[in-house]
Amino acid sequence: MDSLRNGQKKDKKRNVAIFIHNGVEVLDFSGPSEVFASTEGFNVYTVSLSKDPIISQGFIKIIPNYSLADCPKPDIVVLPGGQTGPFIENKTLIAWIKASAQDAEVMLSVCTGAGLLAKAGLLDGKQATTFHNYIDNLQNATPKAKILRNTRFVDNGQVITTAGVSAGIDGALHVVAKLKGLAVATQTARYMEYDKWKPNEGLVVEQPTKVAAARK
Known about the structure:
Blueprint: H1 2-6, E1 14-19, H2 26-37, E2 42-48, E3 54-56, E4 60-62, E5 66-67, E6 76-79, H3 85-88, H4 91-101, E7 106-109, H5 114-119, E8 127-129, H6 135-141, E9 146-148, E10 153-155, E11 159-162, H7 167-180, H8 182-192, E12 203-204, H9 208-215
Parallel strand pairs: 1-2, 1-6, 2-5, 6-7, 7-11, 8-9, 10-12
Antiparallel strand pairs: 3-4, 10-11
Helix pairs in contact: 2-7, 7-8
């Protein structure tokens, strides 16, 4: 890991807030955590509703670094899935997501974490994806969005959604490639021995501003 980090350009670290909650799917948050923590330039921390321990996968106890009330301002927000149902109606959480989206570079959901983005209104008018068993539910809950099947990740610019569980690794690597270049992301994937990664496997939605600029 030292050689990996020493070979990368030093710059100001981006804050990566990974929201965890009781019932969170372990790979949904640990996969992106590994990606960002293994790449130079990211300050990774967990945040939850409070600093009380949460239980992942029914047996892993985790103490969050911060609560929503005191966490550093995030540049990147990661919203993992799992048992997200009880949290979609949490007004404090949804307000935090909306507020974070005002300035964050990236809002990344994994699996059913897309439901939190939807509740915050961040999927309206966009294409998105999620865990294959949650697609119909998310589509019904978000009629103004188009929820795609058989898609590893969907990049709408600031808002990026991924399919389930291991797809969060692909989404996080895509974010690294987007912010720091494909060579850095490839180096991180190689360090992780994540041989499955295919950089072009997801959908990158062309942004209207870029389309307009190209036509001038």
